[in-house]
């Protein structure tokens, strides 16, 4: 008994463990993504699960608008239902009525009669089936378009496993393991964890239990490779086993002391481990060295032994010999104050004579040593020792040196070397002393290691900020400007003294001149006054507290004094000069001070990893900082960090191991410390910065990896395949909201890598040319695609990589599943590419070369240089399509300063045009700005032809010249000019009377007395006149660095000029003169004047197995698609309107006009027709037929551009076949068993329920046979075999008859009735039948069923008897026969007649009643009496 109890307990325990594990893996559910087309109108939020109920929050009219008679459809999907009465109660409290749909399960119509405020409704639904995802969807109409909102509740589970590290040496710290949980069906990384070596298990929580179509998700785990570990994964458990290498060798040690051995990685020369062997050891062995490096590459080891004075260490593979040097080869040391070298020759350094007697300093003393020549083929380098060899600590940013270090002289030192390194400034000089000789195997006896001494921090002149004050006293004003030499050798000063008193001059001198202690005083000053042609040289006299100058004269206007102060100690925190006083008509305190202050150091940039495939260095730094990338002393590239601090510096591809130094220079700060990055062979997983105005994600990944972009909920946003150089470009088709967190996942043969980024807020609109750099996609695909270039994701797949690249366009087409089964949303995107034109185009470039164009812009480049580079790029691009036989673009160039040049001839060669572009500015009197003359010259240079005409005017300043106006109602509406008379000084916007050149500078009046007091108003008048006279010319104006005004003109005045020049407001562009600003402006102009796609069109036929979603009205309208563009103006003209031809089942998009970077995207939905008779399960079906772009109306058919076509597949839909099992009395029958056999012979069995229902589920289309195998008790089996045909659309026919709706197929069973035949015969003679016998037939309850009497044939037949047990009772015997009243039991088990024979005995076979009962009774009585008498007799005797 005890034994049995123990067995039971064990079974219970095992069951409990199994159940516990299962329940442990069943996680809680959490929400997936909530989506809403217009959340201010309708929205849904899933609010978690309580016990067996789901909680939902429904939001209506969140902006509080007025609703009247609005209906919202609510639909529940998955195994859930809502209590109708509870729903109506909750809704009624909010003034909402609900009507349950008669045709669709779990669908309700919510009616809002009147609503003028936000409404929130919370409802709960009951979970009926846990193996489902649960969705609630709201649908309504807004402005004729259907909008939806939905949320989904996804059941979650937990995946867990064990992890262990095996055979890890005690001295080794095991690395963490990165574990990825992967969806086996899609290869998608669901989650990733980093497990530390002290952890023994991993747990992935909140993992999706089901796919979107409610199938169980199968997971597997993978790990990132650990270089020196072998990973084994079994049943989800992970084992990391440490790999070791064994090294052993022999030792011959004459030294007699223990030896320390080092084990070196040959590739990196890093010391991996060391081992000390005993002095008398003959062998050694180490077995704990790692087999591989951290990248998994096998380590090639070498062994080294530490140097031993007086001994030679020889290595042969891993065998070591230590032998003593010959006596004559030892080194003698002597200490003297002078060092000489006897015959110390090497192949690399020859020293004829070296005297260090003059090289002594307070900090350095060198002792003389001599080395005798060794008896070898190569001379040994002398051994030198230094005692107390120290240097001063390097100066910090704030440190100053009280006195300079004494100069160290070296005589006639010549060295042969492959390269020279420029010396860096140091605080003090140090005599290099060679280290003691080391006899490592990897070193030549003739070579010595070179030690580089760290120099003190060296600054450039640009690292300092200059500040000064101004002296003013009545008519006298003085300023001081300083310029530090780039080599920090001196500071050049300019003092300007302005005497506004034009009636007097003064005799003066400068007093109390004081310089900082790191500057020397100037020795003289050079004075000039050009107005009075006065110049002289002033002497400087030193005294204990400063210096003063000799006398000079201060004439009216400007007197300048130029002088220099040598810098005695460079790299200091500040330098200053003060002029304390000045005498003129008395002594005056001036206290004019100029100071150079070391700028604050910029913050070092953060640099992302760089691989051999990288074409850019990316990272973050301070916004606006200039990023510089160096390789050694060579600049590799430079860029500017954007407003968010992100930067990207274009670089050529680098070789593995290259070290790049990256620095950052912020505004008004000096350069930062460098951040070094080593180029690796492995491509890092990187997401480049993503902004809220862009529709794509770029980055780097392992070459060939499948890259997927997901949001924080795991929804796939797009995918592609990384290029062979590790780049990826994933098109999202629509921008993401700032703050959205996205993950980039790359799956390759080496594993899975992920990176995460947050979408940044865009600082611009994202329209090409509006300030955002146009990023062309890379990598791309040349048509056609290879057959295996798919990103397959379960039931759908897209071509990768995308886009397809053509000369004139980039083209995308991809699909994503919707919430409706077998429905897909397709994005078709077309982007213009090369800025070319399809019609003849003449362009005149009017370019400013005034003196101000030589100034530096915000990017520290000259404006003329930036203009040249941006216009050069424009010319190269826009003429790219020109050929020797056909040139569509011609360009002429006009330059202007104080005068406009003659226009160059119209040319088509980019090289010839670029040769006309100005790269230098005008100087002297030609450095003014005669904008009006330039406008006339440019617009009059156009030829009278049918070509499209464009003029681009680029200037950085306000007009300083103009023509004399004659007629006009206002100064800005002058209609007539005298072009023989020029007004203006060339320096000022205003006509202020200050005549500098020969032109009149006075203001004047027009004939109607209107005063003209500046050069801008005539220029504006001329610009407006030109636009009127030449309406066909499209004119653009580009103002460079005009935001602060120019030449005395205000910002408003400058903008007036620029706006007047341009043909329309959008053509007037005011930008910084930086390279970036000009490139953006030129880019926008390029988009406006040229298109690679001109009046093009897209033809997009729907695939034959798909239906276009046409909405509830079944008509193609704006509610059936979403059309977006890089600039809304591209599609807002009413011409770019998609059209659907239902006959051809084709969408067309006409009138596309797209230039470089401009795009249009259409999104629409199609559904795979799985109910089609020709549908084949799991066959890939293209969603479209050949989809093409015709770039222009004249593009030939052979030049049509194909789009990639997405595909989908599906499993066949399954249906239920139900029918009724009835009796012939039309009553339901339970217990009947049926077999349904498909065409392949698979048999399914079902038994009718008590209500007679038979139901076969999960049936696909096809032909089946139906057979009844077991009939209900008491009924006959239906022997017929029925043919059941299920059509693709679910229609069911049985023997050719369609059954649907209330017309339900029925199988009728007849009740089985038996019979009992009773044969009445005489006993002993069955041939003698008896008539007249009456029988009662009673059922099992005793109830009389029938009473019958035998006829002349002696028979009675009880027919139509239900099967069962009966009793046959004879109630009347035939005449002359005895009654047989004993009941007979009879079983009726089938329709077969039961025959019962009943025999009756005749009354003639016994004595008649008249003969009495016979004598036996009397005899018995007599004997009894005799016995009694005998007894009595005996008693009385």
Automatic annotation (TrEMBL):
<dbReference type="InterPro" id="IPR013783">
    <property type="entry name" value="Ig-like_fold"/>
</dbReference>
<feature type="compositionally biased region" description="Basic and acidic residues">
    <location>
        <begin position="400"/>
        <end position="415"/>
    </location>
</feature>
<feature type="domain" description="VWFA">
    <location>
        <begin position="842"/>
        <end position="1085"/>
    </location>
</feature>
<feature type="transmembrane region" description="Helical">
    <location>
        <begin position="1413"/>
        <end position="1432"/>
    </location>
</feature>
<comment type="similarity">
    <text>Belongs to the serine-aspartate repeat-containing protein (SDr) family.</text>
</comment>
<dbReference type="InterPro" id="IPR036465">
    <property type="entry name" value="vWFA_dom_sf"/>
</dbReference>
<dbReference type="Pfam" id="PF13519">
    <property type="entry name" value="VWA_2"/>
</dbReference>
<keyword id="KW-0732">Signal</keyword>
<feature type="region of interest" description="Disordered">
    <location>
        <begin position="324"/>
        <end position="425"/>
    </location>
</feature>
<keyword id="KW-0812">Transmembrane</keyword>
<dbReference type="InterPro" id="IPR008454">
    <property type="entry name" value="Collagen-bd_Cna-like_B-typ_dom"/>
</dbReference>
<keyword id="KW-1133">Transmembrane helix</keyword>
<dbReference type="InterPro" id="IPR002035">
    <property type="entry name" value="VWF_A"/>
</dbReference>
<protein>
    <submittedName>
        <fullName>VWA domain-containing protein</fullName>
    </submittedName>
</protein>
<dbReference type="Pfam" id="PF21426">
    <property type="entry name" value="GBS104-like_Ig"/>
</dbReference>
<dbReference type="InterPro" id="IPR041033">
    <property type="entry name" value="SpaA_PFL_dom_1"/>
</dbReference>
<dbReference type="InterPro" id="IPR049319">
    <property type="entry name" value="GBS104-like_Ig"/>
</dbReference>
<dbReference type="Pfam" id="PF17936">
    <property type="entry name" value="Big_6"/>
</dbReference>
<dbReference type="Pfam" id="PF17802">
    <property type="entry name" value="SpaA"/>
</dbReference>
<keyword id="KW-0472">Membrane</keyword>
<dbReference type="InterPro" id="IPR041498">
    <property type="entry name" value="Big_6"/>
</dbReference>
<keyword id="KW-0964">Secreted</keyword>
<feature type="compositionally biased region" description="Acidic residues">
    <location>
        <begin position="374"/>
        <end position="396"/>
    </location>
</feature>
<feature type="compositionally biased region" description="Acidic residues">
    <location>
        <begin position="329"/>
        <end position="341"/>
    </location>
</feature>
<dbReference type="Pfam" id="PF05738">
    <property type="entry name" value="Cna_B"/>
</dbReference>
<feature type="compositionally biased region" description="Basic and acidic residues">
    <location>
        <begin position="357"/>
        <end position="373"/>
    </location>
</feature>
């Amino acid at each position: 008994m005890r034994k049995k109890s123990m067995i039971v307990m064990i079974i219970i325990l095992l069951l409990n463990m199994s159940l516990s594990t299962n329940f442990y893996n069943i996680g809680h559910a959490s929400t997936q993504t909530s989506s809403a087309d217009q959340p201010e109108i309708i929205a849904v939020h899933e609010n978690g699960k309580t016990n067996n109920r789901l909680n939902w929050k429904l939001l209506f009219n969140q902006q509080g608008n007025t609703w009247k008679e609005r209906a919202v459809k609510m639909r529940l999907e998955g195994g859930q239902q809502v209590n109708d009465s509870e729903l109506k109660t909750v809704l009624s409290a909010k003034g909402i009525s609900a009507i349950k749909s008669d045709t669709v399960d779990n669908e309700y119509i919510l009616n809002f009669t009147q609503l003028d405020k936000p409404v929130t409704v919370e409802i709960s639904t009951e979970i009926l089936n846990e193996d489902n995802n649960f969705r609630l969807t709201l649908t309504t109409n807004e402005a004729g378009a259907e909008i939806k909102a939905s949320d989904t509740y996804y059941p979650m589970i937990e995946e867990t496993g064990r992890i262990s590290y095996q055979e890890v040496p005690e001295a080794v710290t095991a690395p963490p393991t990165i574990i990825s949980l992967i969806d086996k069906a899609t290869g998608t990384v669901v989650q990733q964890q980093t497990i530390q070596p002290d952890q023994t298990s991993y747990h992935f929580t909140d993992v999706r239990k089901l796919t979107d179509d409610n199938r169980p998700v199968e997971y597997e785990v993978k790990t990132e490779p650990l270089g020196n570990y072998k990973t084994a994964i079994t049943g989800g458990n992970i084992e990391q086993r440490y790999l070791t290498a064994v090294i052993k060798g022999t030792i011959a040690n004459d030294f007699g002391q223990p030896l320390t051995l080092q084990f070196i990685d040959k590739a990196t020369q890093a010391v991996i481990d060391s081992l000390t062997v005993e002095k008398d050891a003959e062998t050694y062995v180490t077995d704990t060295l790692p087999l591989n490096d951290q990248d998994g590459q096998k380590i090639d080891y070498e062994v080294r032994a530490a140097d031993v004075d007086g001994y030679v260490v020889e290595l042969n593979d891993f065998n070591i010999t230590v032998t003593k040097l010959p006596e004559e080869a030892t080194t003698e040391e002597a200490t003297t104050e002078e060092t000489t070298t006897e015959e110390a020759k090497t192949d690399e350094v020859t020293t004829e004579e070296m005297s260090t007697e003059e090289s002594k300093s307070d900090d350095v003393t060198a002792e003389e040593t001599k080395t005798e020549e060794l008896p070898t083929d190569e001379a040994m380098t002398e051994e030198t020792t230094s005692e107390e060899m120290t240097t001063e600590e390097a100066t910090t940013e704030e440190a100053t040196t009280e006195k300079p270090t004494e100069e160290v002289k070296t005589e006639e030192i010549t060295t042969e070397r492959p390269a020279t390194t420029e010396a860096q400034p140091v605080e003090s000089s140090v005599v290099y002393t060679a280290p003691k000789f080391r006899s490592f195997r990897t070193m030549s006896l003739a070579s010595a290691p070179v030690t580089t001494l760290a120099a003190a921090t060296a600054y450039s002149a640009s690292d300092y900020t200059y500040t000064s004050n101004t002296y003013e006293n009545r008519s006298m004003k003085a300023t001081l400007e300083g310029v530090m030499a780039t080599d920090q050798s001196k500071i050049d000063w300019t003092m300007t003294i302005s005497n506004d008193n034009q009636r007097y001059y003064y005799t003066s001198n400068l007093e109390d001149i004081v310089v900082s202690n790191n500057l020397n005083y100037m020795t003289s000053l050079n004075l000039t006054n050009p107005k009075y042609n006065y110049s002289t040289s002033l002497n400087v006299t030193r005294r204990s507290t400063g210096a003063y100058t000799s006398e000079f004269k201060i004439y009216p206007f400007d007197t300048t004094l130029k002088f220099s102060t040598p810098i005695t100690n460079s790299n200091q925190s500040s330098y200053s000069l003060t002029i304390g006083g000045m005498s003129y008509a008395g002594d005056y305190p001036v206290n004019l001070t100029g100071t150079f202050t070391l700028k604050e150091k910029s913050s070092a940039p953060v640099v992302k990893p760089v691989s051999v495939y990288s074409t850019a260095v990316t990272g973050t730094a301070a916004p606006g900082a200039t990023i510089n990338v160096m390789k050694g002393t060579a600049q590799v590239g430079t860029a500017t960090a954007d407003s968010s601090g992100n930067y990207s510096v274009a670089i050529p591809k680098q070789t593995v191991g290259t070290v790049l130094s990256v620095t950052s220079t912020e505004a008004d700060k000096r350069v930062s410390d460098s951040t070094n990055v080593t180029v690796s062979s492995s491509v890092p997983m990187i997401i480049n910065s993503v902004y809220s105005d862009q529709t794509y994600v770029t980055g780097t990944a392992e070459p060939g990896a499948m890259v997927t972009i997901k949001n924080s909920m795991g929804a796939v946003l797009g995918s592609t395949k990384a290029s062979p150089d590790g780049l990826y470009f994933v098109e999202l088709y629509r921008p993401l909201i700032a703050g959205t967190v996205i993950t980039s996942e790359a799956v390759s043969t080496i594993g899975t890598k992920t990176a995460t980024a947050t979408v940044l807020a865009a600082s611009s609109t994202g329209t090409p040319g509006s300030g955002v750099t146009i990023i062309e996609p890379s990598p791309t695909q040349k048509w056609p695609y290879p057959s295996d270039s798919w990103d397959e994701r379960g039931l759908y797949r897209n071509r990768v990589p995308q886009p397809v690249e053509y000369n004139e366009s980039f083209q995308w087409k991809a699909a994503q599943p919707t919430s409706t089964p077998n429905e897909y949303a397709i994005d078709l995107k077309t982007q213009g590419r090369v800025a070319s034109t399809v019609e003849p185009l003449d362009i005149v470039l009017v370019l400013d070369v005034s003196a101000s164009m030589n100034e530096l812009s915000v990017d520290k480049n000259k404006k003329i240089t930036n203009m040249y580079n941006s216009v050069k790029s424009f010319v190269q691009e826009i003429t790219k399509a020109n050929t020797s036989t056909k040139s569509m673009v011609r360009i002429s160039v006009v330059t202007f300063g104080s005068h406009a040049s003659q226009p160059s001839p119209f040319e088509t060669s980019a090289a010839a045009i670029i040769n006309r572009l100005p790269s230098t500015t005008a100087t002297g009197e030609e450095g003014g700005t005669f904008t009006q003359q330039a406008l006339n010259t440019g617009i009059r240079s156009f030829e009278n032809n049918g070509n499209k005409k464009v003029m681009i005017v680029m200037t950085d300043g306000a007009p300083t010249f103009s023509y004399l106006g004659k007629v006009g109602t206002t100064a800005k509406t002058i209609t007539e000019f005298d072009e023989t008379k020029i007004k203006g000084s060339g320096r000022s916007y205003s006509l202020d009377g200050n005549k500098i050149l020969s032109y009149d500078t006075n203001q004047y009046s027009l004939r109607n007395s209107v005063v003209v007091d500046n050069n801008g108003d005539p220029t504006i008048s001329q610009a407006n006149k030109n636009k009127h006279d030449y309406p066909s010319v499209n004119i653009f104006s580009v103002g460079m660095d005009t935001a602060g005004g120019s030449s005395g003109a205000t910002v408003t005045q400058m903008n007036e000029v620029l706006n007047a020049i341009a043909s329309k407001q959008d053509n007037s562009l005011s930008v910084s003169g930086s390279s970036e600003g000009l490139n953006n402006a030129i880019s926008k102009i390029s988009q406006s004047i040229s298109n690679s796609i001109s009046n093009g069109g897209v033809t997009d036929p729907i695939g034959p197995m798909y239906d276009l979603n046409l909405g509830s009205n079944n008509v193609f309208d704006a509610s059936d698609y979403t059309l977006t563009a890089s600039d809304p103006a591209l599609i807002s003209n009413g011409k770019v309107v998609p059209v659907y031809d239902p006959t051809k089942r084709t969408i067309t998009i006409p009138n596309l006009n797209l230039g470089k970077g401009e795009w249009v995207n259409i999104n629409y939905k199609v559904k795979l027709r799985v109910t089609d008779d020709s549908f084949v399960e799991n066959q890939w079906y293209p969603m479209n037929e050949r989809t093409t772009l015709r770039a222009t109306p004249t593009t030939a058919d052979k030049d049509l551009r194909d789009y990639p076509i997405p595909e989908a597949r599906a499993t066949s839909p399954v249906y239920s076949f139900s029918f009724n099992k009835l009796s012939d009395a039309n009553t339901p029958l339970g217990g009947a068993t049926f077999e349904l056999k498909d065409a392949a012979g698979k048999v399914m069995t079902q038994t009718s329920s008590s209500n007679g229902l038979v139901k076969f589920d999960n049936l696909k289309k096809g032909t089946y046979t139906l057979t009844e195998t077991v009939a209900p008790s008491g009924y006959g089996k239906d022997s017929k075999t029925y043919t059941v045909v299920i059509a693709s659309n679910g229609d069911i026919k049985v023997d050719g008859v369609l059954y649907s709706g209330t017309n339900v197929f029925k199988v009728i069973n007849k009740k089985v009735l038996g019979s009992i035949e009773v044969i009445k015969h005489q006993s002993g003679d069955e041939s003698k039948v008896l008539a007249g016998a009456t029988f009662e037939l009673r059922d099992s309850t005793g109830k009389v069923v029938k009473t019958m009497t035998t006829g002349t044939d002696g028979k009675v037949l009880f027919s139509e008897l239900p099967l069962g047990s009966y009793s046959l009772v004879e109630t009347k015997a035939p005449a002359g026969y005895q009654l047989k009243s004993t009941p007979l039991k009879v079983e009726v088990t089938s329709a077969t007649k039961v025959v019962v024979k009943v025999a009756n005995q005749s009354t003639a076979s016994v004595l008649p009643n008249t003969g009495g009962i016979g004598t036996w009774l009397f005899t018995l009585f007599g004997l009894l009496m005799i016995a009694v008498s005998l007894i009595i007799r005996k008693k009385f005797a």
